[in-house]
Automatic annotation (TrEMBL), chain A:
GO cellular component labels: plasma membrane
Annotated source species: Thermoleptolyngbya sichuanensis A183
SecDF P1 head subdomain domain span: 164-271
Protein name, as recorded: Protein translocase subunit SecD
Domain Protein export membrane protein SecD/SecF C-terminal: 273-441
TrEMBL record, chain B:
Keyword Transport among UniProt keywords: yes
Primary gene name: secF
Record bears the keyword Cell wall biogenesis/degradation: no
Protein name stated in the entry: Protein-export membrane protein SecF
Keyword annotations of the record: Cell inner membrane, Cell membrane, Membrane, Protein transport, Translocation, Transmembrane, Transmembrane helix, Transport
Cited SUPFAM superfamilies: Multidrug efflux transporter AcrB transmembrane domain
Native source organism of the sequence: Thermoleptolyngbya sichuanensis A183
Length: 470, 328
């Protein structure tokens, strides 16, 4: 009996530890339960970048992460999925449309150098463009007819091209820009600070040296559209702006500087990305789901508990205790393994409650059979466990095989379900074989509980079924 | 209760065949209507789904229910005339719209147009799903692959633990369960417009994992009976094994279905049909284990002249049993 007692103590200890853990650390809830946006971004190759290498993916991830941070969402998560996809989770995001706009922007940023002798032309073209943009805004407000809008849009496009033709690319692209930020100078005036990496810093120095004091500007282009065309002071004519840091000043207010900084920060994607999936769940909707799932879990558990006691009597009651231990241990494992509980995940857990009693049902049915064939109580219980084992093993392994297939080949929510179900299956084998068995054997050591009728109705207390006293 | 599974096997097979054939017929009709055997949700074909609730719905201060005609006219203005619209909620203050895939600008525009006509929506009660068509295909193929992989894995495992013909008929029983579930959902798709999403694939895989349990338990008993009395006819053995495990089959299916009914009743919209698929599949699974997998095995053994089987050397799993001194 010593072995039973220590096992019992161990199980009790595990259950208490699990309960304490669960009260101390909340479970990790998925976005479908707490509200938020989950976006899947697809990275596609281009003519220049025909193959998406892991390094390219990493740099895309870094840019997306920076864009996400720019949104100011706490606990945001960006991870690569497969070879060409990124998963972005934004818990509790209030404006999913803005997030999508910022993340899905395929813009490519580069810094270009203005050609010699185009100063006057740039000024003229720039003025034309501004005029067209104002006109476009007016047209949109007044709900002008589509043909007129389209014409104006085409004119803007031509103007942008004309401006772009005045600049030369120097190979200084957005991925060499380490950071861009808005900072106040004095009063209402703001400037945009830039930080380049080493290579970018050198290129920037060369370029600024070339244009400093000439009246020509350096052009910052996002997708061939001119964002800003700052000029460089003559004092940098000797060396250019070195050290990889610079600032653009001149007539920015806080909002405009912030916008430009964000555009610069997020403009460094080496390959285009596209949002192929967006699932957004409002916060209250998620809360409702949790509540309903908890009701479902509790209702399912209670129904199963009642059934077991009514049908299997004493062993059923002990199996119920094991089932509660099972629920505690499984939830604690979810917690320890950082499983993110999603709606299907919870369904997997509820389902595993029903399946967890299967092992016990198998064992108890066996025990009853043995009792009916006239074996002693103790021997019946033991052989119930022994003979049910191969069925329990085979049936659980086949479920685990299905879980493995789901986990390796499934996507998204499917994976969460597979994982929770698999954990449930493994824990249920442990609790059914160890916990129920220990409880049963302990119960058998109490003389007043040693009545076969507590185990199987209809079996009389025949002399052969009564174990000899110790 | 004593079941004569072997004697009435033609009846059991006919019942299953009737179910499967009507399901196949429904799938054929569905194929002609939607180009797929079941009515696919946007998880598979791509598109956008917007579930919206008026901001006044929480306080129950909405003055009038949402008029679907208004919504339809707004959608038509946006060039989304062939979208589906459903007004939900007890006060008719919520809205479910399914359209072709919308990008951010289109979606924002649509929302603004709707808010102008209907009033403000509550962002905390909004659900927006957009799935690109390529991703839908990906979900579908990965699901199908997972299903095939699960079949193959189970087949290999059962061939090792039992014998090849056991494994084969277990797979036949699994196909039966999958077909019955597919068929019923295809019928529901035709009758009540029920769509299947990626959770349905999860449900199918769970059914596969779970129904094979039932089959394995009966097989296990058949194997045990053969070992104990090798001279008996397979028909007797199967009959006996099925009856000996019957209570267990019923009780296990019952306890599992109890939890599923809980999900079905309380689990909310998405999980509801997931639970329903599982209930259907598990019932079909219990049926096929008892009436299909075992009868087919007996039929096959009889046909191949192995009705009186030689005992097979199979090692049972180890279990640490220490005989107790009490048990003298």
């Amino acid at each position: 009996m010593g072995r039973q007692r220590s096992l019992l103590a161990l199980i009790l200890l595990l259950a208490i530890a699990a309960a304490v853990l669960l009260t101390q650390r909340p479970l990790n809830l998925g976005l479908d339960l707490r509200g938020g946006s989950q976006l899947t971004l697809q990275v596609s190759p281009t003519a220049e970048v025909p193959e998406i290498t892991p390094e390219k993916m990493e740099s895309v991830r870094a840019v997306v992460e920076r864009r996400v941070n720019g949104l100011g969402v706490s606990e945001a998560l960006v991870q690569t999925v497969g070879d060409t996809q990124l998963l972005v989770q934004l818990p509790g995001v209030s404006d999913p449309a803005q997030a999508e706009r910022v993340l899905g922007d395929t813009a490519q940023l580069d810094f270009r150098q203005q050609r010699q002798g185009t100063e006057a032309q740039l000024r003229a073209e720039y003025q034309v463009l501004q005029g067209l943009l104002v006109q476009q805004a007016n047209l949109e407000i007044n709900n002008a007819d589509p043909a007129e809008l389209a014409e104006n849009r085409a004119a803007i496009e031509r103007s942008n091209q004309a401006i772009a033709s005045l600049f030369d690319k120097v190979g200084l692209t957005g991925d060499m820009l380490r950071n861009a930020y808005a900072q106040p100078i004095s009063g209402n005036a703001w400037e945009v600070g830039l930080e380049f990496n080493e290579e970018g810093g050198q290129k920037f120095a060369e370029m600024t040296k070339a244009v400093a004091g000439t009246g020509r500007s350096l052009g910052i282009f996002l997708d061939d559209d001119l964002l800003s065309a700052p000029t460089v002071d003559v004092k940098y004519a000797e060396t250019g702006i070195v050290g990889g840091r610079a600032s653009i000043s001149g007539g920015f207010d806080a909002q405009r500087a912030g916008e430009l900084a964000l555009q610069l920060r997020s403009g460094a994607l080496p390959v285009p990305v596209e949002i192929v999936e967006n699932r957004t769940v409002g916060a209250t909707l998620g809360r409702d789901s949790i509540q309903r799932s908890i009701y479902a879990a509790i209702a399912g558990l209670i129904l199963v508990l009642i059934f077991m006691v009514v049908y299997y009597r004493l062993p059923g009651l002990l199996a119920d205790i094991a089932l509660v231990v099972y629920a505690l241990l499984t939830l604690a494992l979810f917690n320890l393994l950082n499983v993110t509980l999603t709606l299907p995940g919870i369904a997997g857990f509820i389902l595993s409650i029903g399946m967890a009693v299967d092992a016990n049902v198998l064992i108890f049915e066996r025990t009853r059979e043995e009792l009916r064939s006239g074996k002693t109580l103790y021997r019946s219980v033991e052989s119930g466990f022994y003979r049910a084992f191969s069925s329990i093993l085979d049936s659980n392994v086949t479920t685990l095989i299905a879980c493995a297939a789901l986990f390796w080949l499934g996507v998204g929510l499917v994976k969460g379900f597979a994982l929770t179900l698999a954990i449930g299956v493994v824990v249920s084998m442990f609790t059914a074989l160890t916990c129920t068995r220990t409880l049963l054997l302990t119960a058998l050591s109490v003389p007043s509980l040693r009545k076969p009728s507590y185990f199987s109705p209809g079996v009389s207390n025949s002399p052969s079924a009564r174990p000899s006293s110790t | 209760m004593k079941l004569h599974v072997i004697k009435q096997r033609n009846l059991w097979w006919a019942i299953s065949a009737a179910f499967i054939l009507s399901g196949l017929a429904a799938m054929l009709i569905s194929w002609q209507n939607f180009g797929a055997p079941l009515r696919p949700s946007l998880d598979f074909v791509g598109g956008s789904r917007l579930q919206l609730e008026l901001a006044c719905a929480r306080e129950k201060t909405c003055e009038q229910p949402i008029d679907p005609a208004t919504v339809r006219s707004v959608l038509a203005e946006q060039g989304l005339a062939n979208s589906s619209i459903q007004v939900l909620g007890t006060e008719q203050d919520a809205l479910l719209i399914r359209t072709s895939t919308l990008n951010v600008e289109q979606r924002t525009e649509l929302l603004q147009a709707l808010e102008a006509k209907l009033g403000k929506f509550d962002p905390a009660a909004t659900q927006i799903d957009t799935v690109g068509p390529t991703l839908g295909r990906q979900i579908f193929t990965s699901g199908l692959l997972a299903l095939l992989a699960a079949f193959a894995g189970i087949m290999v495992y059962l061939s090792l633990r039992f014998q090849f013909d056991y494994a084969l008929f277990a797979i036949v029983a699994l196909l039966h369960d999958v077909l019955v579930t597919l068929g019923l959902f295809s019928i529901l798709g035709l009758v009540s417009g029920l769509e299947v999403d990626s959770l349905f694939i999860v449900a199918l895989l769970t059914i596969v994992g779970f129904s094979v349990n039932d089959t394995v338990v009966i097989y296990d008993r058949i194997r045990e009976r053969i070992k104990e009395s090798p001279g008996r006819h397979i028909n007797d053995i199967v009959d006996e094994a099925v009856n000996q495990t019957l209570t267990r089959s019923i009780n296990t299916t019952l306890t599992t279905i109890l939890s599923l009914v809980a999900i079905f009743l309380f689990g909310g919209e998405t999980l509801k049909y997931f639970a329903l698929a599982l209930i259907v599949g598990f019932v079909a699974g219990a049926y096929s284990s008892i009436f299909i997998a075992s009868t087919l095995l007996a039929f096959w053994r009889e046909r191949t002249g192995r009705a009186i089987a030689q005992p097979e050397p199979v090692a049972d799993g180890p279990l640490d049993i220490t005989p107790s001194p009490e048990d003298a």
